[in-house]
Amino acid sequence: MSTRKIVLTVIFEIIAIFSFSYFIVMVRYAGIGTSFAFVWLGMALFFAVCGAAVFILGKRNVSFPPAVKVVISVLAAAIIILFAVVEGMIISGMKEKTNEQYDYVIVLGARVRGTTVTKSLRKRLDKAFEYIEKNDNTILVLSGGQGSGEDVSEAQAMYDYLVQKGVDKSRLLLEDKSTSTVENIEYSMKIIEKNSQNATVEVGFITNNFHVFRAELVCRNMGYDIKGIPAKSDNKLLVNYMFREFFALVKYKITGNI
Asked: Which domains does the chain have, with CATH numbers?
């Protein structure tokens, strides 16, 4: 078997082992229902099969026609380059920006379990609390509707959390109908325009760092110059979040939302 096929087999099996190991870590840490968890299991199986196939075909000296090899190589290279470029853009949005002073800050919602905010959403809310502690005139718009498995809207859960932390209720506005990032921005801006009586105001938003780049593109696509304030993400789940975000960006591009 050629050295090239041996190397390819090893690479595929390493990816398979990493994917399966990460799947186990995710399930043990955050539960079987963690978003995108089974994608990692699927990747583990896919690359394990690919590695085994390359090894078996190599042992039998079976080879693809040159044209097929070229097509596979070009497609693989294109996917790798696209993935690397997009992930680089996602990382660029994760950097903390200068402390801009906004009149309104939209806090983008995330999953709620019953009436309790999840770790991801709590990090957004803690960032929002930190921000308004330093900016006395900022009003928060808490944006998120009620989804499956949620006993209250994400907006209401966020409201309750911040009030418990001592935030003045007069500084909180609720947007409880949205079900996506696009709707978060669209519905929140309507509330802001109504509350400000269409006066010119400075608006920002808070979300987890991996999500900032896509949310800023959504804002730009809708004609708004709104910048993101990145909140931290759970370190153990960050790889999953960033991997998932790649597909979310591709989907949003195809559907015309960015």
From this structure: 3-92 (no CATH), 104-254 (3.40.50.620)
